[in-house]
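Complex 258.
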Amino acid sequence: MTAKIVTFGISKGGCSKSTSSGITSYLLSKEEKVLAIDMDGQGNLTSFLTGEYDICNVFEEKTVLEAILNGDARPYIIKIKENLDLLPANDFLATLPRRMFEKGLKLDALQKALKPVMEDYDWIIIDTPPALSEQTVMPLSTHSEAGSYAVVMFDGSMFAYYAIPKFLEIVAGARERYNPTLNVAGILFSLIDSRAKENEIMEESIEEDYPDLKFSTIIRRKASTRRLAISGFDGNPELKTALEHYIPFVKELKERVR
Ligand SMILES: Nc1ncnc2c1ncn2[C@@H]1O[C@H](COP(=O)(O)OP(=O)(O)OP(=O)(O)O)[C@@H](O)[C@H]1O
Ligand SMILES: [Mg+2]
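Predicted structure with adenosine-5'-triphosphate bound:
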C-alpha cells in the first residue's frame, strides 16, 4: 500500500479546514489506516483529535516541526485510536521558515520526513493554516504514487470566494514545480447556513467558474458538529447527527480520488 495524500486548504481563515480534515481522518480510519498531519501552529487538528489543549507544553519538541527538521516523521507520530495516527503541531511551528533556512531545507522537506511511513498508511490527511505559506505549499508539494489531492474549503463567503483562485494558483504551481501527482479533489462547501439566501448564488457561481469541482455534498452549519471539539468522538451521544453530512462527503471523496 502507498498512502493517498489529501490536503485541506484555503487562505481564508475559519472555513472548517481543521474540523473537516479531523472528521475525514476519523471516518476514513473506520476501514483504513490513516495518518493525520497538523501543519498549522494553532494546533487545532491536534487538539481536536487528542482532546489536549495545552499543546505548547504537552507536545514540546514532539511535533511535525521536529519531523521536518530531522527528516523523519516516525519518532513523532502518536496513536489516536486503532487505524488513526497523528503527527501533531504546536505554536513552535511558527519558526519553521527560519529553521528550514538555517538547515538549508527545501520544500521537499516534508516529503523526505514522510518517506519512511508512506507504505504504512492508506491515507495521509493534512490540515493547513489559513495562509499560502510553506506550511501549505509543502503538503501540496508532497507526492505519492497513489495520488496527492487538494480539497478546497469554502464557507460560502465573499472573502473565501476570492481566496479560491489564489489557492488554485498555489496548487498549479506546486504541481508544475514539485508534484506532478497533485490534483484538486474538489471544492467543499462547509459551514453553510440552510436559511441564507446568498448560498444559492454562490453555488451557481462556483459551478460556473469551476465546472465539476464542487462536491455535491454540502456540509451544513450544525451546533453538534461544532461541539465535537468539546465532546470528542468517543461516547458522544450526538455523534451521528454531528457526522451526518461528512459521511456522504467521505464517500464522494473516495470516489473522486479512486
Ligand atoms: N459544520 C460545522 N457546523 C458548525 N460549526 C462548525 C462546522 N465546521 C466547523 N465549525 C466551527 O467553525 C469554526 C472554524 O472551523 P475550523 O477551526 O475547523 O476552521 P479552519 O478553516 O480550520 O480555521 P483556521 O483557518 O483558523 O485554521 C470552529 O469554531 C469550528 O468548531
Ligand atoms: Mg484550522
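Residues 3 and 123 are 5 Å apart (CA to CA).
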